[in-house]
Design a protein that fits this description.
Number of domains: 2
Radius of gyration: 16 Å
CATH superfamily of the largest domain: RimP-like superfamily, N-terminal
Low-confidence stretches: none
Largest sheet: 5 strands, antiparallel
CATH topology of the largest domain: GMP Synthetase, Chain A, domain 3
Mean pLDDT: 91
Helix content: 10-25%
CATH architecture of the largest domain: 2-Layer Sandwich
Oligomer: single chain
Strand content: 35-45%
CATH class of the largest domain: Alpha Beta
Length: 143
């Protein structure tokens, strides 16, 4: 997530907090100069109706972007410490900002998460990664 994306996500979360307080913005990212993509979640699941409501609440972003609002799907993005904690025991792929031991990503089971870092049991061994070193992360479907 780029710093601009992080600011944009906070702005969108603030806007939705009053109108749709149960909607969690998992990821807001500008995927091209003209496209803003949002992954949202809700305790009762994400329906087409919910995506349409969220899209309507963010209608003024359409002046700058084509807006895509969807559920996280099986390869759900992990962007906050509580996401990692919630999915302990599941497999995730973590892409790093800088190569570590010659690798730009680590894939394995989420075995620990704190406010500062996540611990992954990868085939190469157990690795602890500070959140600020993570460029992007998501669950790996199928487990």
């Amino acid at each position: 997530m780029q710093p601009d994306d992080n600011q944009l996500q906070k702005e969108i979360e603030g806007r939705l907090a009053t109108s749709e307080p149960d909607v969690e913005v998992l990821l807001a990212e500008v995927v091209s100069p003209a496209t803003l993509r949002l992954f949202i979640d809700h305790p009762e699941g994400v329906s087409l109706n919910l995506c349409e409501r969220v899209s309507g609440l963010l209608n003024d972003y359409r002046d700058r972007y084509s807006l895509e609002v969807s559920s996280p799907g099986q390869d759900r993005p992990l962007t906050k410490p509580q996401h990692y904690t919630r999915f302990l025991g599941r497999h995730a792929r973590v892409r790093l900002r800088d190569a570590r031991d010659g690798h730009k990503s680590v894939t394995g089971e989420l075995v620990g998460a704190s406010d500062n870092d996540v611990t992954i049991a990868a085939p190469e061994g157990v690795v602890t990664i500070p959140y600020e070193q993570i460029a992007r992360s998501n669950l790996v479907p199928g487990d």
